[in-house]
């Protein structure tokens, strides 16, 4: 029996934000919520369709693109060969365009963004813990 793994929509939004270089503050402003609420939203497995439509509009992508996002598909799309065939009376030629990308720089930038997001999340959670400590009754 083959089980279909449902995508983690929050992770998909986060990865697309990274790919499109969209900051959490931008999303927070567009949704009229705090950056901390955006951070919590990105941790959710599922996001309400109406809210997902708003997020998609802010990111200038379709909601389906967010739901169906996968890094493997993006890599496959980028790494496809493009064939151009020209026909004229003298000869016929096929040109293969094989793009070369410096993935190390892109990977480093991606990892730095992920690390920054992780640090922001940790700081946000620390502040939340500290607030809860101050609110809790002391014995």
What's this entry about, in short?
The radius of gyration is 21 Å and the shape is globular.
Written overview of the protein:
The structure is a single chain. Strands 1-2 form a two-stranded antiparallel sheet. The radius of gyration is 21 Å and the shape is globular. Helix content is 61%, strand content 9%. It has one domain: 434 Repressor (Amino-terminal Domain) (Orthogonal Bundle). It has helices at 9-20, 24-31, 35-41, 49-59, 63-67, 71-79, 103-135, and strands at residues 82-87, 92-97. The protein has 7 helices and 2 strands, in the order H-H-H-H-H-H-E-E-H. It is mainly alpha-helical and 139 residues long. The longest helix is centred in the last third of the chain and has 33 residues, at 103-135. Residues 81-87 have low confidence and may be disordered. Helix 2 (24-31) packs across helix 4.
According to CATH, the fold-level topology is 434 Repressor (Amino-terminal Domain)
Total number of domains: 1
Largest sheet: 2 strands, antiparallel
Question: Which CATH class?
Answer: Mainly Alpha
């Amino acid at each position: 029996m083959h089980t279909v793994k449902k995508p983690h929509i929050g992770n998909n939004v986060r990865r697309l934000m990274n790919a499109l270089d969209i900051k959490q503050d931008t999303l927070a402003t567009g949704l009229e919520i705090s950056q901390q609420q955006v951070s919590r939203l990105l941790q959710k497995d599922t996001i309400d369709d109406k809210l997902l439509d708003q997020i998609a509009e802010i990111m200038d992508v379709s909601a389906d693109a967010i739901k169906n996002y996968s890094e493997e598909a993006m890599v496959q799309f980028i790494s496809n060969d493009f064939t151009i065939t020209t026909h004229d009376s003298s000869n016929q030629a096929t040109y293969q365009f094989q793009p070369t990308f410096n993935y190390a720089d892109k990977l480093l930038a991606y990892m730095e963004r992920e690390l920054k997001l992780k640090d922001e999340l940790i700081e946000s959670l620390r502040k939340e813990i500290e607030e809860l400590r101050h609110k809790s009754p002391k014995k």
